[in-house]
Design goal:
By secondary structure, the protein is an all-beta fold. It is built from 1 helix and 25 strands. It has 2 domains: 178 residues, Jelly Rolls, CATH 2.60.120; 127 residues, Jelly Rolls, CATH 2.60.120.230.
């Protein structure tokens, strides 16, 4: 978190991390259109000077005001790559963290009105800025609603168009991170995040239970109606705030059925941090999954609930059920 207390621009410490990854694609691999190439990581806590890449001619600058800003002077690379921006931040309830692009000699263009998801927790978002928007040299600007930036880390990646095999249900124009994480186009276009659309694959229905991100540590119940007998149900949810080594318990119809199997993000993910008191900790969303058998879920009304560790702020979003119905 950076507090800004004057109107004098301040140069900030940074680090540069070249990152190249070869993506091997087979005929049945998940889809995308953009593959991440070289990257630059800005970390306010890093001391010392590190050489800048050629496409970042000046040091990142924080400007102190009632609406604090952090800006990056950028000269787009020679290819037709798009720019992937990942920001790790601490949410301020009722506030915002906006993203703008300002062409050299031009006016600001709004890319994302607010990265926050109104969960008042450390969080991260990725935005893809397309090449037509970038055009030539310009300035990428992050603007806070207050005099505090609330930024923990920024990562910039040039995303080159790539040819991969597509499943029919996978969206063309998706973004694939260096660690293999796939973002749907609507996740990275700067618009407010929307629920995942329902879809059918034969007898399998994938449906979204939640509409947006929300805190759950006080106990939130999610009623779901199952219209006919099922063979099995896969539970999937994104969790924010869960410390490593802890679990999220799944309750169904008042009974505990087990704990979610939690994803461990790739170690190159910018959400990793370390402190002497807390050890390794992660800022961002982690996927949790659980498989329910036919005898655990009933036809009719069912109530789901998630329980994290005691006294731990926790949020979820994209709570999905993949329901495989039994044969008629």
């Amino acid at each position: 978190m950076i507090a800004c207390v004057s109107d004098v621009p301040a140069a900030i410490n940074w680090c540069v991390r070249p990152c190249f990854k070869t993506l091997t694609v087979v005929l049945t691999m998940v889809a995308g259109q953009y593959l991440l190439a070289d990257s630059f990581v800005f970390d306010p806590t890093t001391n010392g000077r590190v050489p800048l890449p050629s496409w970042l001619p000046d040091r990142p600058v924080a400007t102190a005001s009632n609406h604090a800003e952090l800006s990056f002077q950028i000269v787009p690379v020679a290819d037709d790559d798009d720019l992937a921006l990942t920001v790790v931040f601490v949410e301020d309830m009722g506030g915002y963290l906006g993203v703008y692009w300002q062409p050299q000699g031009g006016s600001r263009q709004l890319i994302c009105a607010n990265l926050f998801e109104n969960i008042s927790l450390p969080n991260q978002r990725t935005i893809l800025i397309n090449r037509p928007t970038l055009g030539g040299p310009g300035k990428l600007i992050l603007q806070s609603s207050s005099n505090v930036l609330n930024i923990k880390r920024v990562r910039l990646d040039w995303a080159r168009p790539g040819v991969v095999r597509l499943f029919d249900l996978m969206p063309n124009g998706a973004l694939i991170s260096a660690g293999g994480k796939v973002y749907a186009p609507e996740e990275v276009d700067g618009s407010p995040l929307a629920p995942v659309a329902d879809r059918w694959e034969g007898r399998i229905l994938t449906t979204s239970v939640t509409d947006n991100a929300e805190r759950i540590e006080q106990g939130v119940k999610y009623p779901v109606s199952i219209t006919k007998p099922v063979r099995r149900v896969r539970v999937e949810v994104l969790v924010n705030g869960l410390p490593f080594g802890n679990s999220v318990k799944l309750w169904l119809n008042g009974e505990r059925v087990g704990s979610l199997a939690m994803e461990i993000p790739e170690l190159g993910d910018p959400g990793y941090f370390h402190s002497r008191t807390a050890g390794d900790h992660y800022t961002g969303w982690r996927k949790g999954v659980f498989l329910l058998t036919a005898n655990q879920i009933k036809k009719g009304d069912n109530v789901f609930q998630f329980q994290g560790p005691a006294n731990t702020p926790l949020a979820i979003r994209d709570f999905l059920l993949q329901i495989q119905y039994a044969a008629d």
